[in-house]
């Protein structure tokens, strides 16, 4: 085959396809092409992949296309026209992609977002503080809890007295039937209460400073002995 005869190019092929197919048909490696044309391997690969944006410029690109086409016996003018059309399409696609992808606003990135984050964290801190304040106020004004271990309500006994045993907070002021009861460091208490025969109402009151009062009522029945 004459070196200056041209190969038939299949319609629908891209410039890259034409170069790659012709090179393989000639059984040439990319290194062989570099040695024959002096085109750097990097740009041979670019031409065979259609990545025209990576070419240094149209002057170099057209010169390399001519050299490469001549080596592969391909029609130079047709390949240059392919390059022109494909490059224009590639640039248009890139341009459309850039338009459709919103650019990150400097104002949004550097002014709005920091302010939004600042407002968010400040609001979060305020909410936590308000929640803690509400919990503290509720803890201060709510009536203290009192646990009575003994006696139970409606307790029956024949004894003349009963031991009232229980637990509350150490800072609570606790009284039974108006009489102040001493608490230990852990809030435990024990108080002996005298009973009368019949029903006995024990009124237990517990209160902290500034809090509501927790009133507990126990009914104790002291049974009398019947002597036959």
- How many domains? The number is 3
Total number of helices:
6
* Main sheet summary: 5 strands, mixed
SSE pattern = HHHHHHEEEEEEEE
What is the strand tally?
8
Strand content: 15-25%
What ranges have pLDDT less than 50 throughout 5 or more consecutive residues? 1-5
- Give the % helix: 40-55%
**Overall pLDDT score:** 83
The CATH first-level class of the largest domain comes to Mainly Alpha
So, the CATH homologous superfamily of the largest domain? Answer: lambda repressor-like DNA-binding domains
* Straight-line N-to-C gap: 145 Å
Remind me, CATH topology of the largest domain?
Answer: 434 Repressor (Amino-terminal Domain)
Computed over alpha carbons, the radius of gyration is 49 Å
CATH architectural designation of the largest domain:
Orthogonal Bundle
**Strands ordered across the widest β-sheet:** 2-8-7-4-5
Describe the global form: rod-shaped
Structural class by SSE content: alpha+beta
Q: Can I get a quick summary?
A:
This protein is α+β, with helices and mostly antiparallel strands. It has six helices and eight strands. It folds into three domains: 15-100, lambda repressor-like DNA-binding domains (434 Repressor (Amino-terminal Domain), Orthogonal Bundle), CATH 1.10.260.40; 104-141; 147-222, Immunoglobulins (Immunoglobulin-like, Sandwich), CATH 2.60.40.10.
Structure in words:
By secondary structure, the protein is an alpha+beta fold. It has 3 domains: 15-100, Orthogonal Bundle (434 Repressor (Amino-terminal Domain)); 104-141; 147-222, Immunoglobulins (Immunoglobulin-like, Sandwich), CATH 2.60.40.10. It contains 6 helices and 8 strands. It has helices spanning 15-25, 30-37, 41-49, 58-72, 76-100, 106-141, and strands spanning 147-150, 155-157, 161-167, 173-176, 179-181, 188-194, 198-207, 213-222. The protein has a 5-stranded mixed β-sheet, with no helix packed on it. A 3-stranded antiparallel β-sheet has the order 1-3-6, with no helix packed on it. Helix 1 crosses helix 3 and helix 4 (58-72) crosses helix 5 (76-100). The longest helix is centred in the middle third of the chain and has 36 residues, at 106-141.
């Amino acid at each position: 085959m004459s070196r200056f005869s041209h190969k038939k190019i299949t319609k629908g092929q891209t410039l890259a396809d034409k170069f790659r197919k012709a090179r393989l048909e000639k059984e040439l490696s990319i290194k062989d092409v570099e040695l024959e044309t002096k085109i750097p391997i990097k740009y041979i690969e670019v031409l065979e992949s259609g990545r025209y944006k990576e070419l240094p410029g149209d002057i170099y690109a057209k010169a390399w296309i001519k050299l490469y086409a001549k080596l592969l016996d391909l029609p130079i003018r047709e390949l240059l026209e392919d390059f022109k059309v494909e490059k224009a399409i590639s640039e248009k696609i890139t341009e459309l992609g850039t338009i459709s992808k919103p650019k990150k606003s400097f104002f949004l990135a550097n002014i709005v977002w920091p302010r939004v984050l600042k407002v968010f964290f400040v609001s979060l801190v305020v909410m936590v503080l308000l929640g803690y304040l509400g919990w503290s106020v509720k803890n201060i004004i709510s009536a203290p809890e009192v646990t009575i271990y003994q006696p139970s309500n409606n307790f029956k006994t024949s004894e003349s007295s009963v031991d009232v045993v229980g637990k509350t907070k150490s800072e609570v002021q606790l009284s039974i039937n108006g009489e102040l009861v001493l608490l230990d460091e852990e809030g435990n208490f024990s108080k002996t209460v005298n009973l009368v025969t019949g029903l006995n109402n024990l009124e237990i009151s517990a209160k902290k400073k500034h809090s509501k009062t927790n009133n507990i009522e126990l009914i104790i029945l002291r049974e009398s002995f019947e002597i036959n």
